[in-house]
Design goal:
The protein has 364 residues and is an alpha+beta fold. The protein contains ten helices and 18 strands. Strands 3-2-5 form a three-stranded antiparallel sheet, with no helix packed on it. Strands 8-7-10 form a three-stranded antiparallel sheet, with no helix packed on it. The protein has a three-stranded antiparallel sheet with strand order 13-12-15, covered by helices on one side. The longest helix has 43 residues. The termini are far apart.
Length: 364
């Protein structure tokens, strides 16, 4: 005989020649020779092979001490111990000892991609992260969902989680904010064969994500080509002088020419502008010469205008002095005063007639 002591929350399986004969719970027992007692801690998990489990399940005492959880290939089971999440059971047969703990099992069907809203989101992000596919659409984005290669729906901002199974899921996103595009370094010939390099800028927004991502491939590249061709076509109808005089008109016309094509791409044009017009070196030098010549001509015109005005003023003054002797005398005295201001000393030589002559200036 062999003595076996089973502690609380333990269980012993007694085998004889590989066959389960008895199940012993907490207590003090004697077992006969040739029998083997295997003790299990009911608070821990143990794995039994399918063959072992088939044998053990024939004993009703064993069946009463366990939770037998069968999980199919397209299922997961959430295990809660004493109302707290413990672990996840995947496909197979699982044995959990009843023991002193209270267990709850929640079976989940993963055959569908959609997840029940009742499942705790924290579990999806942590314990179930290996079994789900997660996609995040930012607040400034929209997305489109494809299931098995077919368009399903448009996704607004938010977090989207799907079961990981044989179903193929694809999510494509687009930025719905106002975007900027540079069309730079465009070598264009004007109507009068002047070769220019033009930098053009546009601002746009995606307003229809289905057109932008589903109906068109690389809609941003298509928009670039559309704007580039329209810019080249319109600038080619203008002479160099017309282009320089109507730079604002270029942006307006290009937007009008491309608005409907942009709409077909799911895009709305917000604004555009001619950023730079870069001239070749020889043309730039000629333009500088023309500018200098124009400024010189303007300066000459201003000089002639001022000279004419000055002459006319002198003529008017002379006529007044001719008609009024007193005014003439006042003018003489004004000039004598100006001369006297510049003289420090006066040295006289000769007869006293000089002083008399000076006096005559102030005699009526």
């Amino acid at each position: 005989m062999k003595r076996v002591i089973i502690n609380t929350n333990n269980v012993a399986l007694v085998f004889k020649r590989g066959k389960l004969e008895n199940v012993l719970t907490a207590g003090d027992y004697w077992i006969g020779f040739g029998k083997i007692a295997t003790i299990y801690d009911m608070s821990k998990s143990y794995h039994f092979s399918n063959e072992e489990l088939d044998i053990l399940l024939q004993n009703s005492d064993f069946v009463n001490l366990i939770h037998l959880v069968d999980v199919a290939d397209n299922e997961l089971v959430l295990v809660y111990q004493n109302k707290n999440f413990k672990n996840v059971l995947t496909a197979g047969r699982h044995v959990i000892w009843k023991g002193l703990s209270e267990y709850k099992f929640v079976k989940l069907d993963t055959n569908s991609i959609y997840i029940d809203d009742a499942i705790d989101k924290n579990l999806l992000e942590k314990a179930l992260s290996n079994y789900v596919r997660a996609y995040k659409i930012e607040s400034f984005e929209n997305g489109i969902l494809f299931i098995d290669g077919k368009f399903n729906s448009v996704l607004d901002a938010g977090n989207y989680i799907y079961w990981k199974n044989s179903t193929t899921i694809q999510v494509y996103k687009a930025d719905m904010r106002q975007l900027n595009m540079e069309i730079g370094g465009q070598e264009i010939l004007t109507k009068d064969k002047a070769q220019l390099r033009i930098n053009f800028n546009i601002q746009y927004k995606i307003n229809d994500i289905k057109k932008a991502l589903l109906n068109n491939k690389e809609s941003d590249k298509q928009l670039y080509v559309i704007m580039q061709l329209a810019l080249r076509a319109f600038v080619g109808t203008l002479t160099f002088d017309e282009l320089m005089e109507s730079k604002d008109k270029v942006a307006e016309t290009v937007m009008n020419l491309t608005a409907s094509q942009a709409t077909d791409l799911g895009i709305t044009l917000v604004s555009s502008g001619l950023k730079d017009i870069i001239l070749p070196g020889d043309v730039k030098e000629i333009m500088n010469q023309v500018l200098i010549a124009e400024k010189r001509a303007q300066a000459n015109i201003i000089t002639r205008r001022e000279e004419t005005a000055s002459t006319r003023s002198l003529l008017n003054t002379a006529k007044l002095m001719e008609e009024n002797a007193m005014l003439y005398k006042l003018k003489e005295m004004e000039y004598v005063e100006k001369i006297a201001e510049k003289i420090n000393n006066i040295s006289l030589s000769g007869s006293g007639q000089i002083v008399d002559q000076l006096k005559q200036i102030f005699v009526k």
